[in-house]
């Protein structure tokens, strides 16, 4: 008879890293489906490109480092990075955008730091920032939802557009971005930002057709889909509720106060919560177990910091959306946050008792 | 002769100011967006380093130990001023594009470091050679980094070389590939840090390979030496 010897914690759930990563990727599916239906099938092409690039670059570096390739590919962490990056970038960005971004995320941000578990920064978001800083034009060409486009896009147009920047029938992306009235349309956050800088008030900007409902056409459904996926992850106890709740509530409170103070220039909390990448970032990206804070109090601080940074950059910074920057900046603060929020170990005295 | 060889090896490889001592990183990272800028600043630094090493070595026995640092700084500052005026006169466009980084050569730690660690303890000739070799080592790193960033960033080499070398140098410009959208990161400061990190990693890889190949005598400690060659 043999005794199984294991170190603490002695309570297990039987999930492996691979299962967790795969569940997170699966939980993205509702969002991906909504994006494909409302914004066209470009996202599927990007996903395929990203996953292939991620696997190739991961295998290449593992080979160079002399590690077992297949074992580590099967932990699905490269897959998840690829999925997150592919749904974060504009669905019709040229093919080399996603290839460069994914390769950078896997090789430089993850493997050069020592592979899964050792990376300081969230690989997908570091890749996104690289792309946003290097190729600002391509990274801001979000087509409006299909319902607003004046030119119909067939499913196979997605492939043509990603690889040649022209639809199969020969329309350029700029033409596709143009509404029936000949006005170029961007994302709601982008439109709002441009309009405010032109001196329009919030209400005047809201006349634009990209603002349908309170969050912007298509974007509300997209965020609701990611919210559903995220709630599933919390229910399955794969992610902790603390980070998403802290991100969302700090963004909500800050934008509510600001919108009450200056209603003409700052959009309300519901707009901020359901536009751009809020739900995707709060539930799927900020909760990355490697680069996020690991203590319970720390997670609340970390999430609140992200919400604060997003609020500041969206309203007063240089970019329309800010999750990538906010998460990277918060990643840098994680060691400090973890240091100051270490929980009391059982049997040791509390800080007040020591005094 | 062996001293000359040793100084050369130290300056160019073993104790390279850019890759090993990591001195003067501010100009190194800031101006290496193109090969031309790198060459201009590298040459200016080389001149100042040579001049300061010679001057410091000449006065080394007449300066009281307590005030040597201010004296060294004065010498370096006057040399930098001279170089700045020369560049202003003969390579005006480059002078404009390098901007604040020419006067900032004064604060380049590689220069005061060599003055303190080597020139203040050695005769004129070795000091001059040390200045040249350290300057060359620094310039080489600048050039390699500049070439990497220029190729990645805009697909060219020697773009704007005529600013430094005169009109004939326009022929030097090589267009390796042309793309509609430049890889901006390579031209921005983060690209410089990434490139620098990769260069240092590459040097360490080469060193390790050499070490394995030769299986050098034991006891050699791989450690960055900032204080100059042991005498």
UniProtKB/TrEMBL annotation, chain A:
GO CC aspect terms: plasma membrane
Cofactor(s) essential for the protein: FMN
InterPro entries in UniProt: NqrB/RnfD, RnfD_bac
A Pfam family hit: NQR2_RnfD_RnfE
GO biological-process terms attached to the record: electron transport chain; transmembrane transport
EC number: 7.-.-.-
UniProt keyword annotation of GTP-binding present: no
Topology term for the membrane: Multi-pass membrane protein
Membrane-crossing residue ranges in chain numbering: 20-38, 69-89, 120-139, 210-234, 241-260, 266-287, 299-316, 322-341
Subcellular localization(s) per the UniProt record: Cell inner membrane
Superkingdom per UniProt: Bacteria
Entry-annotated residues carrying FMN phosphoryl threonine: 187
Swiss-Prot/TrEMBL keywords: Cell inner membrane, Cell membrane, Electron transport, Flavoprotein, FMN, Membrane, Phosphoprotein, Translocase, Transmembrane, Transmembrane helix, Transport
Annotated PROSITE patterns: PROKAR_LIPOPROTEIN
PANTHER family, alphabetized: ELECTRON TRANSPORT COMPLEX PROTEIN RNFD, ION-TRANSLOCATING OXIDOREDUCTASE COMPLEX SUBUNIT D
Protein task: Part of a membrane-bound complex that couples electron transfer with translocation of ions across the membrane.
Family note: Belongs to the NqrB/RnfD family.
Subunit structure: The complex is composed of six subunits: RnfA, RnfB, RnfC, RnfD, RnfE and RnfG.
Protein's name according to its UniProt entry: Ion-translocating oxidoreductase complex subunit D
Gene behind this protein: rsxD
UniProtKB/TrEMBL annotation, chain B:
Matches recorded under NCBIfam families: PRK12405.1, rnfE
The protein, known as: Ion-translocating oxidoreductase complex subunit E
Residues that span the membrane, as ranges: 20-50, 71-88, 94-112, 124-148, 183-202
UniProtKB keywords: Cell inner membrane, Cell membrane, Electron transport, Membrane, Translocase, Transmembrane, Transmembrane helix, Transport
GO cellular component: endomembrane system; plasma membrane
Residues in coiled coil: none
EC primary class: translocase
Organism encoding this protein: Rheinheimera lutimaris
Lineage per the UniProt record: Bacteria, Pseudomonadati, Pseudomonadota, Gammaproteobacteria, Chromatiales
GO biological process: electron transport chain
Family as reported in the entry's similarity comment: Belongs to the NqrDE/RnfAE family.
Subunit record text: The complex is composed of six subunits: RnfA, RnfB, RnfC, RnfD, RnfE and RnfG.
